[in-house]
Amino acid sequence: MRRPLAPLWLARPSRFAGAAPRDAWAALAALALLLVATLLVFATPVPPAATRAPADRGDDQADVMLYETIVANVRHGGNYYAVAADAMRSGNYPLKPFVTFRLPTLAMVQATLPHALVVALLYLLAAAVAVAWYARLAPAFARPPPRIVAMALLAGGLMAFVQRDLIAFHEIWAGLFVALSLAVYRPDAWLPAVAFGLAAALIRETAGLYLALMATLAVAGGLRREALGWVVAGTVLALALACHAHGVAEVVRPLDPVSPGWSGRLGFGFFVRTMTLSTALVLAPLWLAAPLVGLALFGWAAWADPLGLRVLVLLAAYAAVLSVFGRLDTFYWGLLVAPVLLVGLAFVPDGLRDLFAAALDKRRITVKRIVR
User: Fold this and answer.
1) Buried b vs exposed e over 188-221: b needs ≥16 C-beta within 10 Å?
2) Nearest-CA neighbor of 122 among 73, 150, 160, 148?
3) Is 141 helix (H, G, I), strand (E, B) or coil?
C-alpha cells in the first residue's frame, strides 16, 4: 500500500489519501460528472428577482411581510391561528394542507420579546455558529491560514443569515440551529446536537429531515443511545405537528385555496441555483459559482472525519428534496443547509491532490522467486 503524502492544509490526510489507482480514477470520474451536472443550473428557471425599491418591498418580500404581520397581530393579543389564516387569505396564500401554515414557535417568541432583543438574539445565534464551527474546524487544519480561509467560507455561507430584514423568516433561524447542531455534534456528547436540531425542526418542520438523517446515521454507526435521542426528537416534532394540524383545522374554511403541491421536479440544477442564491456565491458569475457548489460537496467528501460524512449526506438529501419537490417559489428551502456548504471548499486542495497522486501512482511491487 502506498504511503499517504503529507497533507497540504489538513492536520491529517484526506479520505482519498492512499486510495488504489482504480478507486482514485473512479472518484475523479464521479467528480467530473458532478461538475458537469452543476451546469444544469443554466437550464433551470430563475426565481423572480427583487427590485430592491422601497415601494416594491411588498412584492420583493411578500412572505417576510406575511410573517411580520402575523407577529404584529399576535403581539396585540390575537390568536396565532386566527391571525395567520386572516393574513394568508388577505395575501391570496393557500391554506390547505395544514403545512402551508408555519409552526407557531417563532411567531410566538417574537411576539413576546421586544424587536430589538429578537435582532440581538439572531446576531448572537449567528456568532454562536461561527464560534462553534471554529472550535470544530481548528483541529482539522495544520496551520492558521487555512483556518482563516475556512472561517471566511463559513461567513460566506452566513451572509443571508445576519440580515435583520429577514428576521421573521423561519428558514433563517432553522438553518442557523441546524448549523449549530452540526458544529457541536460529538459521538460521545450528542445531546446538545439533538436539542439544537429539535429547535430547528420546531421552527421549520422541513428540518425534520435533518433529525431523520442523523438518526439513520447513528443506527448505521451502531450508536444506539444517540439514535434513540434523535428518534425522541422526531417524536416530539410529530406530536407538535399533530397539535399544529388541529389548530389549523379550527380556522380553515371549506372554500379556502389549496396548495398546488410540491412536485416541481426542477432537477439538480435547481439545488445548485438555491445554493448560489443563499450564499456569497450570489456575488460571483454563475459559470463560476455553479462548479464551486460541486467542489464544496467534493470537499466534504474528502474530509476524513465522521462529521464530514454527515454534512455530505445532509447536503445530498436536501439536494434530492429540492430537485424533486422544490418549486420555483420555494428556493428558500436551501437556507436550511446553506450555512455549512462553502466550508467544504477548504478541504478541496488536499482531496484533489490526494486523488491525483493516487490515480497517477505507477509504483508496483515485483515478487521474484529465486531458485538455488
Assistant:
1) eebeebbebbbbbbbbbbbbbbbbbbbbebbeee
2) 160
3) strand
Cell of 133: 464551527
C-alpha cell at 359: 490515480
Find, among 308, 306, 304, the residue nearest to 340 by Cα.
308
Q: How confident is the model at residue 370 (pLDDT cuts 50, 70, 90)?
A: low
Q: Is residue 82 a contact partner of residue 70, using CB atoms and an 8 Å limit?
A: no
Q: Is the peptide bond before 114 cis (omega within 30 degrees of 0)?
A: no
Q: In sequence order, what are the beta bridge partners of 141?
A: 10
CA–centroid distance for 91 within its chain: 28
Q: What percent of the chain has pLDDT over 70?
A: 92
338: buried, middle or exposed (CB in 10 Å: 19+, 13-18, 0-12)?
buried
Exposed / middle / buried, residue 28 (Cβ in 10 Å: 0-12, 13-18, 19+): middle
User: Residues 313, 213: contact at Cβ < 8 Å?
Assistant: yes
CA 306 to chain centre: 17
Contact 40, 272 (CB under 8 A): yes
Q: Please tell me the number of Cα atoms within 13 Å of 335 on its side-chain side.
A: 21
Quickly list DSSP for 5-57: PPPSSBSS--TTTT--HHHHHHHHHHHHHHHHHHGGGGGSPPPPPP---GGGH
- What is the tens place of the pLDDT at every residue in 338-367? 999 999 999 999 999 999 998 887 765 555
Question: Tens of pLDDT along 298-322?
Answer: 999 999 999 999 999 999 999 999 9
Please state the pTM of the whole predicted model: 0.92
DSSP 142: S
